[in-house]
Write a structure and sequence with these properties.
- The protein is an alpha+beta fold.
- The chain has three domains: 94 residues, Ribosomal Protein S5, domain 2 (2-Layer Sandwich), CATH 3.30.230.10; 43 residues, no CATH class; 144 residues, no CATH class.
- 62% of the residues lie in helices and 15% in strands.
- The protein has ten helices and six strands; from the N terminus they run βββαββααβααααααα.
- A four-stranded mixed β-sheet has the order 1-2-4-3, with helices on one face. Strands 5-6 form a two-stranded antiparallel sheet.
- It is elongated, with a radius of gyration of 34 Å.
- It starts with 6 loop residues before the first strand and ends with a helix.
Length: 300
């Protein structure tokens, strides 16, 4: 099933004196890219969350917010004494150089980022296991909700993609209809134009001109490109049932389709009204391909 890389999921797990909230947001990315924001005292659980994401998803950028509220039976605060000493020394130096008044208070020190930390060394193994279980449960549920949203978004994307593929198929048949007998038509038109501009050449070397006109007309034949476009459309449709990085494969096929359409335009540009009709259909195909490429960027 096709899934989008865009979505959101959140879940909460609660226990005795414990609440864990995990929110996961994902957007498109070429590979899997995980960013976790978790309280510093619980950094040891970050890898657990990363593994949950990487085992569930294959592509996307994931921004994960984790909040852990745990009421400890005993709390121990630790101070960064080196940092305090540095602030005190700085204050003394500044007072000597500038007319600064006042002293460092405990209130002021407590506001310095990173100066006071809550030690988790007082957490027992049982407490750590309970927190780990709550993190695993909430992360797992958030991932399930995210997966559900990404699948729903994928279904919406595929409906739009299917309609654009159908439009491309119609334009391809327009090109095919215009190209039917096009080589002979173009050869006749080319010979008629030569006869109009230089009738003496036709009289002197008509056989050679006939051969040259046919060769030139064959260079404008787009039958091969039409066949490849039809094949690419079939290949693209088959990817809808692929679970492994379908988005990358779809993007590659669209690049190949774009190449074929570019060739059609180069072969038919500057020709008569029949060539102009083929060119217009080819331009419409290009427009749909570009819109499809924007869409498949969001497919996992």
């Amino acid at each position: 099933m096709i899934t989008s890389m865009t979505g959101f999921g959140s879940a909460r797990a609660e226990g005795v004196n414990l609440t864990v909230l995990v929110e996961v947001k994902s957007v498109n990315h070429r590979y899997i890219d995980v960013h976790v924001k978790i309280p510093g005292e619980f950094q040891s659980f970050e890898n657990q969350i990363r593994q949950k994401i990487s085992s569930t998803f294959k592509r996307g950028r994931f921004d994960i917010f984790v909040r852990i509220d745990y009421k400890r039976s005993a709390v121990r605060l630790e101070a960064n004494e080196n940092l305090i000493r540095a602030y005190v020394d700085l204050q003394e130096r500044l007072k000597k150089q500038f007319p600064i008044e006042g002293t460092l208070s405990m209130e002021t020190l407590s506001r310095i980022p990173g100066l006071v930390t809550v030690s988790d060394s007082d957490l027992s193994q049982e407490e750590l296991s309970r927190i780990a279980a709550a993190v695993d449960a909430s992360a797992g549920e958030a991932c399930r909700k995210l997966s559900h949203m990404r699948r729903a978004e994928g279904e919406t994307l595929m409906r739009d993609i299917d309609s654009r593929l159908a439009a491309i198929a119609r334009h391809v048949e327009t090109v095919a209809g215009g190209a039917n007998g096009f080589v002979e038509h173009y050869r006749t038109q080319l010979l008629a134009r030569i006869a109009e501009l230089a009738p003496e050449l036709v009289n002197e070397s008509s056989h050679r001109l006939e051969t040259e006109a046919l060769l030139y007309a064959e260079r404008s034949d787009v039958t091969e490109e039409i066949t490849r476009l039809r094949s690419h459309l079939g290949q693209f449709a088959a990817l809808k049932n692929l679970n492994d990085e379908a988005g990358k494969r779809m993007d590659f096929i669209l690049q190949e389709m774009n190449r074929e359409v570019t060739t059609i335009l180069s072969k038919t540009s500057g020709l008569n009204e029949r060539g102009a009709a083929i060119g217009q259909a080819a331009i419409e195909i290009k427009v749909e391909i570009e819109k499809l490429r924007e869409q498949v960027q969001n497919i996992e």
